[in-house]
Amino acid sequence: PAAEAWRRFSKDKVAVSFLVVFAAYLVVALAGAAVEILGPDTPLYLLTLAEQGLDVPETATPPSGDHWLAWLGTTSAGKSVLLRVFHGTKVAFLVGLMGAGLSVLVGTMLGLVSGFFGGWIDELVQYVYSTVASIPYLLLMLALAFVVRQGPIAAWYDDLWLSDYVSLGLFNIVLVIGMTSWVTLCRLVRAEVKKVRELEYVQAARALGIAWPRILLRHVLPNVFHLVIINFSLRFVTAIKSEVILTFLGVGVDKEPSWGQMISDAKNELMRGIW
Question: Which of the four, 46, 59, 87, 152, has the lowest number of CB atoms within 10 Å?
Answer without folding.
Answer: 152
